[in-house]
Each structure stands twice: as structure tokens, then as C-alpha cells.
Amino acid sequence: MNSNATLQNEQLAQHQKVTRSKFLQRAFIMLAGSVLFSIGLEIFLVPNRIIDGGITGISIILSHLLHLPLGVFLIVLNLPFLLIGYKQIGKTFAISTLFSVVIMSIGTSLMHKVAPLTIDPLLAAVFGGIILGIGVGLVIRAGGSLDGTEIVAIVFSKKTPFSVGEIVMFFNFFILSSAGFVFGWDHAMYSLIAYYIAFKMIDITIEGLDQSKSVWIISDEHEKIGDAITYRLGRGVTYLNGEGAFTGDNKKVIFSVITRLEEAKLKSIVDELDPRAFLAIGNIHDVKGGRFKKKDIH
């Protein structure tokens, strides 16, 4: 009994150590993402009268019209949505988001007096969008959010036929359009450029440059193709049993996971071994375990 109790205590201590390590790692990632977001706003977008979407865009407009610090609006306007997120999504998400929003608000206040790196609105839109997108992507990867409209979109998506992305896009259409009345339509168009770039950078930051892809192949040469994927791409392969609905023939289905960079090589392997093979490739947001490790392409 004593040895079992000792073992359980050691396992509990190890679990707490791992949990604490993961918590600190997540906190650091959210801190870095929030700081980057603040830099993108105050060093690039705000001085050039370019806005972002969501609550951040509304905050920039109100800060300009009412001549009050941007950080005040970022906290005040996000608080109601944080309460919704706490009730509808979860405590951890709400706390992570609150932490990120507070850091973002403090960051914008500290950087407000820093001179902008460029007064060219196009350069500001491009580089501001890149930095904003990376910042948001890091926070999302760590389990938080930097904008209350995303929380509303998640809640509404459960009660409507629209996806989270469609709801966010709907909100941002009106927010970004309002920039035309406040800052001029040229700045509204620069805002659209910044928003689009940030949107793309969020995807890249979350999914990585080596975005994972699932592969489904149906071929009579399944063994040759499977061996080629294993030894030439270094990827694990699983054979699934399938049956043609029209012919009733039994078929072997090859399933594997590759990266975006390996897609062209995979297609050439399939064309080389069986030009008539059925090939389907889809995006995957997360991969864990198995033999999914980067290897050289032969």
C-alpha cells in the first residue's frame, strides 16, 4: 500500500509539473501574441487611420471620434462578450481571452506615443496586417481570443445555419465600411487590405507553413503506391477495405497524411504508378501521434 501511495504521489507531482509547464507556455504565447497585436495597431494601423475588423475596429473609430485612449475601449467593449464567453464557451477560454485583451490594452497605451515606422498607408496596411495576423494566430493557438465578435459568432453559429467565419465576415463588412465615413474611402480600402492580409496570416500562424493534408487513394496498384509513399515520402500508410457502390468490387483504400510541400511529389508518384487512380486530398487542422514526422523526399 505504501509503495502504491508513493507511486501515485509521484505521478500526481509529475502531472502537476507538466500542467504548470503547459500553463506557462500558453501564457507566454498569449503574451507574445497580444504584444505583437499592439505593435501592429499602434506602430502601423492607427497612425495611418487604418482599422481592423471586429471590436478592435469599433474601438479605433470611437477612440478617434471621442479622443480617448484606444486601450479603454478595447477593454470596455470586450467585457460584455467575455461574460458571454464565460457562460457559453467555458471558464478557461474566458480567462485566456481576458488576459490577452488586458495585455493588448496595456500594450496599445504604452506604444501610443511611439512614432510610426511608416506613413505610407499601403506599407502600413501590409505590414500591420502581417503583424496583427501573427499576433491573433498565436493567441488562438494558445486557446484565447482578442476580439469579442468571435465569441458572439461562436454562440450565434450554434443557433443559426451560418458558420463562425460567415458571421464574423458579416460583422466586419459593416465595421470596415464605416471607416469610409470616418477616415475616408481610401483608408477604408486600405483597411480591407490589412484585414485580408491579417486573415491569411492567422491561418498560416495557426496551421503552419507545412499545413497538413489528408490523402485518400483508390487504386489497383495500392501496394506499389503505399510502398512509394512510405519509402519515398517517409509517411505512414493505412490500408482500408472499401467496396464500390456501383460494381460491388472490393477495393483497397490508401489513407495517409502529408504536408502541403509534399503534395506535388505525391501526385507525381500516383501518376507514375497508376494514372487512373482515384486521388482525393483535403486540409487537416491538426495532426498528433503516429508516424507523422518530417523526412526527406526521395
UniProtKB/TrEMBL annotation:
The keyword Calcium does not apply. CDD domains: YitT_C. Residues 235-289 form the DUF2179 domain. InterPro entries: DUF2179 (IPR019264), UPF0750_membrane (IPR051461), YitT (IPR003740). It comes from Paenibacillus allorhizosphaerae. The lineage of its organism: Bacteria, Bacillati, Bacillota, Bacilli, Bacillales. This is DUF2179 domain-containing protein. It holds the Pfam family DUF2179. It is a multi-pass membrane protein. It is found in: Cell membrane. The chain crosses the membrane at residues 27-46, 66-86, 93-110, 122-140, 161-182. Keywords: Cell membrane, Membrane, Transmembrane, Transmembrane helix. Its main location: membrane. Signal peptide: none annotated.
